[in-house]
């Protein structure tokens, strides 16, 4: 992985590559952004670029240093992640012990701490001293999706590198190149904030099933003499798919939004583009205001689920609301 291969995050890449070119690498960076926004791949690309013997501001991927990182056996790169629910003080002490020896290659050593907000107070305080007074030249890269949970003293001593959720179109392009089915990838990129989260959704067998159930229930609930309650019982509550009601309602939200795009002729934004014929038939059976109210209804039902309202009751109320 190199900076060139990382999609989006242009501001973060520009900041890091500038520091490489100026040979003004900070002793600590705090990568902050939503889950799946590419913090870990960018951190690894930055570490490779620091070690790379061929390029000034990126990783060539070919030199011995780059290949060691790709194979996961570079002696000057240390990865740290929570042990259970937390990053413990013993892990930070082990890190300090490893970093008491200089790099033989002449470059700084690098450590990457994933989910850095999960450090215990003792671990964070121990790291703070290490950040300020490393025994050898070192670069720390702390990754977090909750920067406010970090100790203010660590935040103030690290250079903040902000990450943002990837653009759905950028994610869709990558997923299509990776041969994921278009009809599943299109909704997935609107349901997750990063490529890893999208891939995780797409690799679940139930995702295609829940999408099909949503389309069936949607079509049935909007017709006369609705049979959607019976279908929900058979397709969801007797099959185990009812575990994924939150995802079902999220898909409904996208589907109702597609109805608005059809009404306004914005076909380029439609998520369920493979269902265009059905969308075109249904879009004008309701007013714009009704479709918006259905989106609100889906959001309200999702909220109820988070407060542990009975799932079956919640979905039945939702489907009756559509009818």
From TrEMBL:
GO terms for biological process: DNA-templated DNA replication. It holds the Pfam family DNA_pol3_delta2. One of its GO terms (molecular function) is DNA-directed DNA polymerase activity. Keywords: DNA replication, DNA-directed DNA polymerase, Nucleotidyltransferase, Transferase. It catalyses: DNA(n) + a 2'-deoxyribonucleoside 5'-triphosphate = DNA(n+1) + diphosphate. Its EC number is 2.7.7.7. Residues 211-321 form the DNA polymerase III delta subunit C-terminal domain. InterPro entries: DNA_pol_HolB, DNA_pol_III_delta_C, DNA_Rep/Repair_Clamp_Loader, P-loop_NTPase. GO terms for cellular component: DNA polymerase III complex. This is DNA polymerase III subunit delta'.
């Amino acid at each position: 992985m190199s900076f060139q291969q990382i999609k989006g995050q242009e501001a973060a890449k520009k900041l890091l590559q500038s520091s490489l070119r100026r040979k003004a690498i900070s002793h600590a960076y705090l990568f902050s952004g939503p889950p799946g926004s590419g913090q870990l791949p960018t951190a690894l690309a930055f570490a490779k670029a620091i070690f790379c013997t061929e390029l000034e501001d990126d990783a060539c991927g070919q030199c011995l240093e780059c290949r060691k990182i790709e194979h996961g056996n570079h002696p000057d790169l240390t990865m740290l992640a929570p042990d259970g629910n937390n990053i413990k003080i013993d892990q930070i002490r082990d890190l300090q012990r490893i970093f008491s020896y200089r790099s033989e290659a002449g470059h700084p050593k690098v450590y990457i701490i994933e989910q850095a907000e999960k450090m215990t107070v003792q671990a964070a305080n121990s790291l703070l001293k290490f950040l300020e007074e490393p025994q050898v030249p070192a670069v720390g890269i702390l990754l977090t999706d909750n920067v406010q949970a970090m100790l203010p003293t660590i935040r103030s001593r690290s250079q903040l590198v902000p990450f943002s959720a990837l653009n759905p179109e950028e994610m869709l392009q990558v997923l299509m190149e990776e041969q994921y089915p278009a009809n599943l990838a299109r909704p997935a990129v609107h349901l997750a904030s990063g490529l890893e989260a999208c891939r995780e959704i797409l690799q679940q067998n139930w995702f295609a099933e829940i999408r099909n159930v949503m389309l069936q229930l949607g079509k049935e609930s909007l017709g006369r003499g609705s049979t959607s309650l019976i279908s929900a019982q058979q397709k969801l509550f007797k099959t185990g798919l009812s575990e994924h009601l939150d995802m079902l309602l999220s898909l409904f939200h996208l589907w109702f939004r597609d109805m608005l795009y059809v009404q306004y002729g914005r076909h380029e934004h439609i998520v369920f583009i493979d269902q265009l014929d059905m969308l075109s038939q249904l879009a004008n059976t309701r007013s714009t205001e009704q479709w918006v109210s259905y989106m609100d209804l889906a959001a309200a039902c999702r909220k109820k689920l988070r407060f542990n309202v009975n799932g079956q009751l919640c979905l039945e109320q939702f489907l009756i609301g559509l009818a």
